[in-house]
Amino acid sequence: MKKLSKKERERIDEIIRRLIERYGGESRTYLEHNNAWQLLFATILSAQCTDARVNIVTKDLFRKYKTLEDFAGADLKEMEKDIYSTGFYHNKAKNIIACARMLLSEYGGEVPKELEKLIVLPGVGRKTANVVRGNIFDIPSIVVDTHVKRISKKLGITTTEDPVKAEFELMEVLPESVWIIWNLDVIALGREICVAGTPKCDRCFLADVCPSCKG
């Protein structure tokens, strides 16, 4: 871990403590799934789309395409219609079909846990890979989505707009044991209180330890 001043270490530890106290500190995902490849595909669909919308779409999608073989053999135009409401449906449909085919041809139908194997799958970047690693394989991972990037910077824990750089900055200052929890609890904070554009600083339980507080 990065060496911090005693005061800054105590501030970050207090932020972690309050987040866990508020949101439970339990490992969980907001995307509904029954297995690793379903979570992988749901995460691909979640790019520039809400988890709630993805869950509505995948409820029918996973009934229609029950196996990896079903996805691998899907018609592109039909898949586009099936996932249309998640946005960017052409690329997402193309990537999901190609991803299913690669999982079958390269990995025997199993989702790999290694980061380097995950990020070569079509449509899979570090964020998607880390969601799978953290939630399926319980491998400590930092997932930098829009909430995590924005709020970590507002809290003065990261300094960059680049999600990959933010991931490594967070890994340097957060205890590995809370990496997955940080992802989930900060997302919860972003949805409930630290809303983009209209943060409710007057209601925030982190107000006194947040350098961006406007309360």
UniProtKB/TrEMBL annotation:
Gene3D superfamilies, alphabetized: Helix-hairpin-Helix base-excision DNA repair enzymes (C-terminal), Hypothetical protein, domain 2
First-tier enzyme category under EC: lyase
Keyword Iron assigned: yes
A single GO BP: base-excision repair, AP site formation
Catalytic activity: 2'-deoxyribonucleotide-(2'-deoxyribose 5'-phosphate)-2'-deoxyribonucleotide-DNA = a 3'-end 2'-deoxyribonucleotide-(2,3-dehydro-2,3-deoxyribose 5'-phosphate)-DNA + a 5'-end 5'-phospho-2'-deoxyribonucleoside-DNA + H(+)
Keyword DNA repair: yes
Chain ranges of the HhH-GPD domain: 45-192
Taxonomic superkingdom: Bacteria
Keyword terms: 4Fe-4S, DNA damage, DNA repair, DNA-binding, Endonuclease, Glycosidase, Hydrolase, Iron, Iron-sulfur, Lyase, Metal-binding, Nuclease
One of the Pfam families matching this protein, by short name: HhH-GPD
EC number: 4.2.99.18
Named cofactor requirement(s): [4Fe-4S] cluster
Note on cofactor: Binds 1 [4Fe-4S] cluster.
A Gene Ontology molecular function term of the record: DNA binding
Family designation: Belongs to the Nth/MutY family.
Function: DNA repair enzyme that has both DNA N-glycosylase activity and AP-lyase activity. The DNA N-glycosylase activity releases various damaged pyrimidines from DNA by cleaving the N-glycosidic bond, leaving an AP (apurinic/apyrimidinic) site. The AP-lyase activity cleaves the phosphodiester bond 3' to the AP site by a beta-elimination, leaving a 3'-terminal unsaturated sugar and a product with a terminal 5'-phosphate.
Name this polypeptide is given: Endonuclease III
Annotated source species: Catonella morbi ATCC 51271
Name of the encoding gene: nth
